Amino acid sequence: MKHDKSAYGQRTLAGAGLLICSGLLLLAVPRLISSCYALYPEMAYQKNQLTPLTPDIYERCISNLEQALSWHQSAYDWQQQGFFYLKLFNLQPFQAFEKKRELLKNAQTAINNGLALSPVDPFGWFQLATVDKTLKNPKINTIDALRLSFYSGRVEPDLVMSRLAFSYNYYADFDEDLRQQWQKQLLTAWTFKGPELITFVTQHPETKELALQAFVYAPDDADKFLHALEIALKKPI
User: Fold this and answer.
1) Is the pLDDT score of 20 beyond 90?
2) Which of 7, 81, 130, 192 has the most other CB atoms within 10 Å of its CB?
3) CA angle, corner 176, sides to 173 and 178, nearest 5?
4) pTM for the whole thing?
5) Residue ranges of the domains in the chain?
C-alpha cells in the first residue's frame, strides 16, 4: 500500500512538473518568434546610428516589428517602431502633408503603446513631446510629456542636451517645479556635455543667470563654467 501511495505521489509530481514545463514553453515560444522578427529592425537601428538608411529599410523594419508585436507585446519594440515611423516622416517631401501627418500619427500611436507598457522611459516621453509639437497639439500635451521625461530619467547623458534645448522653448510656460527640474538639467549637462552646454548658453545668453543659479551649491563648477563661457565668447564667429 505504501508503495502504491509513493508511486501515485511521484506520478502527481511528474504531472505537475510537466504542466509547469508546458506552461513555460507556451510563454517562451511567442517571445522567441517575436525576437526573430525583431532581429532585423534591431540591426537596422544600430546601423542607423552611424548612417541614415533608405525608406525601404525603414518600411521593412516597421513591418517586421508589426509581426513581432503580434506575437509578444514589447515596450522596446513599440518605441523602435515609433522611431522608424519618424525616420520615414523626415524623408517625406515638404509637400506631402497628408503622408507626413499619417506617419506622425502612427509614430504617436506606437510611442504611446510603448509608454503604456513601460512608463519609466525618459526617451519615449521626450519623443512623444516632439511629436506633439510637430502635430501642433495643445501646448500642455508637450509640457506634460516633458515633465514625465524629466521625472522618469533626470540623469540621461545621451538625452540631456537635446531635451534641454527643446524644452527651453517652453520654459516661460513651466510651473516653478518644472523650471527647477530644467535648471537641474544644466548641472547634468555640465557634467556630461560641457562643451555642448557652453555652445547652448552662448546661443541663449539669457540662460547664463539660470546656469549660475543652478551652480549655487557648486562654486568650483561655477568658476569653471564662467571661464569656459568667457573663452567661447571671445572666439570669432
Assistant:
1) no
2) 81
3) 70
4) 0.85
5) 28-118
